[in-house]
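LAB NOTEBOOK - FOLDING QUEUE
OPERATOR: T.R.
BATCH SIZE: 2
PURPOSE: Compare the predicted structure-token outputs for two unrelated chains run back to back under identical settings.
PRIORITY: normal
REVIEWER: second-year student, initials M.K.

ITEM 1
FIELD SEQUENCE / FIELD STRUCTURE:
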Amino acid sequence: MPTVRLDMNFKRADGANSKMTIDQARTDITQAEVNSLMDLIIANSLFEPNGSPLSEKVKIELVTTEVVEFDVV
């Protein structure tokens, strides 16, 4: 069964990049929902990695991974 994760990439106020990952993300999440979430995170300074608030959206990726296991013989 495939797994889905949401990767949200931000620029911090100090110029560094920061990535936030949500495992087991909804497969039907929309671009508008994710953009709104990122705007909310930035506007309310909800996270400050290394003391530097997130200041800009950089990239959004919805990553689907399917693992095929083989028998060990």
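ITEM 2
FIELD SEQUENCE / FIELD STRUCTURE:
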Amino acid sequence: MGANIHQLQQSLEALEAQAAQLVHHFSSLYQDYLRELGASVSKQLMRAAYHLCTQTEPQAFVGLSLSQQQSLQQGLQRLGWQLQQSLLQTLRDTLVADAQRMVPEHLVLAIHSIEDTIVAVLQQTSRDANYLLQDHQILEIQSMDALFKIAAQADEAGRPITSPPHLLKALVEAKESELEEDNVPVVAIYLQITDIELADSELMAWRHQLRQATQQLMALNKDFVQKQKARTTAEAEAAWRASWFPYSPEKTPTISDENECVESDDKEEGREP
């Protein structure tokens, strides 16, 4: 039994070593992927803004002064740069900082965290871009939350929500006090990871490598969890055997023993003081 526990421990240590190698592999892949993603988002954000300002709301953009137009363009470019820096910082905080201490299941959680952060950062960048466009009188969005809620519901249902890419067009219900004819479609920027990857072949190549590495990680984690459970079971069995000793009941009094006790008491009472 002790040999079995030792073998399981060695197997777990070997799997942890493989996980450490995967951490470095994921770090390298994500660094390249996120760098390309940041550059791609910057380009596609500008394309979406260009289409919005020249095709959807051309009069509003032409109505801006040159300095206002440049301010809008610079602000959009800055958002793309900030997105890339934010994603790379997430990678450093999530993987690089704990590279030597990560077991497979923790690495799985770290990967999920990175992917969730990518979506969250794209959402925030979309909001910031729309606020910037609104500040420059290109858009007028009464409720960003309501608009993004509609987009999220359509996305979950599998319905296409952006056409052209990254431009969301939705009908947001007016308040009861407003007239029905005031319900006009709202156009806004809505960055989606699927559209971004489809438009960038190099980014898709990195995503393919990430999927392969993730499949390898999931198999590794499954093996790790099974061996962890087996080791815990073996340790419990060993502890049971080590703490076991036969039950030894105390001597049970018999009738003859009780009679002897009575006779002894009588003799004690008959003694003279």
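REVIEWER COMMENT (ITEM 2): The beta strands are 167-171, 185-189.
FOLLOW-UP: none requested
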